[in-house]
What we know:
heterodimer, A: mainly alpha, 75% helix, 0% strand, globular, B: alpha/beta, Rossmann fold, 17 helices, disordered N terminus
Amino acid sequence: xxxxxxxxxxxxxxxxxxxxxxxxxxxxxxxxxxxxxxxxxxxxxxxxxxxxxxxxxxxxxxxxxxxxxxxxxxxxxxxxxxxxxxxxxxxxxxxxxxxxxxxxxxxxxxxxxxxxxxxxxxxxxxxxxxxxxxxxxxxxxxxxxxxxxxxxxxxxxxxxxxxxxxxxxxxxxxxxxxxxxxxxxxxxxxxxxxxxxxxxxxxxxxxxxxxxxxxxxxxxxxxxxxxxxxxxxxxxxxxxxxxxxxxxxxxxxxxxxxxxxxxxxxxxxxxxxxxxxxxxxxxxxxxxxxxxxxxxxxxxxxxxxxxxxxxxxxxxxxxxxxxxxxxxxxxxxxxxxxxxxxxxxxxxxxxx
Amino acid sequence: xxxxxxxxxxxxxxxxxxxxxxxxxxxxxxxxxxxxxxxxxxxxxxxxxxxxxxxxxxxxxxxxxxxxxxxxxxxxxxxxxxxxxxxxxxxxxxxxxxxxxxxxxxxxxxxxxxxxxxxxxxxxxxxxxxxxxxxxxxxxxxxxxxxxxxxxxxxxxxxxxxxxxxxxxxxxxxxxxxxxxxxxxxxxxxxxxxxxxxxxxxxxxxxxxxxxxxxxxxxxxxxxxxxxxxxxxxxxxxxxxxxxxxxxxxxxxxxxxxxxxxxxxxxxxxxxxxxxxxxxxxxxxxxxxxxxxxxxxxxxxxxxxxxxxxxxxxxxxxxxxxxxxxxxxxxxxxxxxxxxxxxxxxxxxxxxxxxxxxxxxxxxxxxxxxxxxxxxxxxxxxxxxxxxxxxxxxxxxxxxxxxxxxxxxxxxxxxxxxxxxxxxxxxxxxxxxxxxxxxxxxxxxxxxxxxxxxxxxxxxxxxxxxxxxxxxxxxxxxxxxxxxxxxxxxxxxxxxxxxxxxxxxxxxxxxxxxxxxxxxxxxxxxxxxxxxxxxxxxxxxxxxxxxxxxxxxxxx
Lengths: 352, 556
């Protein structure tokens, strides 16, 4: 029961979202039950539904964790998008630039460049916040624009295959591709792009859990987020924790690049991210900034993305934007929980 | 009614409190067995006296799962000063806020002058001539006294404002009571005590006949307290009725005619002040016998542990909240710091604890001969300087973390809590062990280390912090406001802990806004005013009045 309690509000939010969504579907002129059956059925079918759901969920797990770690330090990292764009470009860059290396060296190198570029991109707003008090919401948004612009520029003018009409880099060597699940799982079709980076995402969840709750660093980050004055009293340098948390956050967001480049497109493709970094905020919020919650929320959102395509195609009127409505209602409800709690505790505060 | 007979505990005092009405003299102290009971039936005097000014009947109020008021019934006679005492969370303020229309009662009635009234909002209360002075003043700092007083009840026409007339009325009211408040002064230029008088004037300007004061003395110096009491007595002479909420028993005995004691949301006793004493009231408040006086042996000071020379803290604006203080604290003694809050005590403790950036500090701080003025908080903790901060919510605790995680704050970076290479891993078993032993030794209730710190009462939170800091086996303990917002039972426990630590040879620097506490515990007392030490006094040989005078910059 104690374990289930944190799930109550997100589940209520989910139910409310489906309720509001069915009103929308009725207004548009379709049958809600049929539409939802399509949405859920297509997202959970084996193997395609589940395969694609988890494939879509993978980047959201990384960005959800990224936002959650920053949030545990009291920071709102709106910049996961920029961090993952910079990291993804850096992954492709490493793969192209050091194409001559053995895959045994090149794959780790690509992974490291993803993580470290993301971490560096996250650490910059962290330093600005810690040293100069510049608010991370503003600076991370600005860093997003910088990342996207720089990646497009370098792709266009330095790393494109000459004559290619699409804004994308050259590909990385074949040997650096990480395996799709179809290679490992008998009977799982290889056309589904779900790859090993999903397991990396699961490992990242475990890592974040251990990092936050079982290491001194995690304790210091959480203490800083919970009460900076008390953290200072406890001998914790809050400035340092802010930088560390933003770097870890950026590094996690950067891991999106590993799946994208080594596991899916094998190159940097401009505009590959459909707002993974921003959806990550919603994922973290719904997942209560806890790795398990993030994992579940990311899979839910992955299922929405998968199901949306089928709703789009097979219903008469409803478009795939239905899932945006569902997401929005969920976020509203989860956010209103904070309001609800604030209201209750302010009522209680007056008790003495 | 057999249980109304007198007890052996002292002869009944003759005469009743003034304006208590006839028949009061026959109300003796209750037998011990009845002390914890509900108001005795011999307290009823229906049909004999004028109706009470205000009467609460079975007021019940629930906040979520908390029963803040459980069938609270009390009567306040007209023309008296009535004290309501109880520990924090006993429900005193809730009951009075219901009377003032701040909260709506779930159940029960309020009677004014004998008839049932509905008080749904503070406006209703004001219309019924009830005034309330809150613990936190509700004044506009940049406006004048007169402007504040008329705010919401502006004299004059629809567009004009008759401030001249208002000023005259305020001046008249002020002189009548000897308040000495200039209606044209700006609030921000007034002392806290004067601001409180403005609040009083505000209520009187609205023709309050019943005034409720919520913890009015918490922010005042001893001089201001006695001035306030003189004002309240004059108001009583004018026929006003005063309800004063407090948890300080000495004040109850000094000012009130009658006292109602609350505990756990219930009224547990009603007494005529003249016929009770501090011990009985404390027993009612806490539900068990409490040692009110601190009992201590003379200090056995050892070598100097802390030597401070010319310590100055400069605020970002250039002001010096702490201005060149020098003193020493020896092992085995408690050195107290007395002063009106905001006279450098906070900065002193924070500077000694390493929480003020070195760039803002000048002067020297020697710990057993070693210069530590530039060390950070962590390095000082490593040198066994413990610190019980003045604000446990802001500094001392991570309210959303569980008790176990709170007991390692400041200890999380080394053995036995953090283990492995670079002390990276938190050893959960070691943390639980440490937490459980602190919770057990310091009687933290409930003793469940998985609860969030937020779930504990103030007293238990403070015991947790003190347990954590004493676990360091400190050489020097910096302790600020150790019993603020802490109930009487825990105060006693904390005082005993501090004295035991002193007797074990620790040097203790104690800052407290409670003058009684700081004089009772300290072996030497430093009086501070405007960031400077104005004098060192022997707390046992100096009167409270003299210390109070020194605190406000006077010379006794």
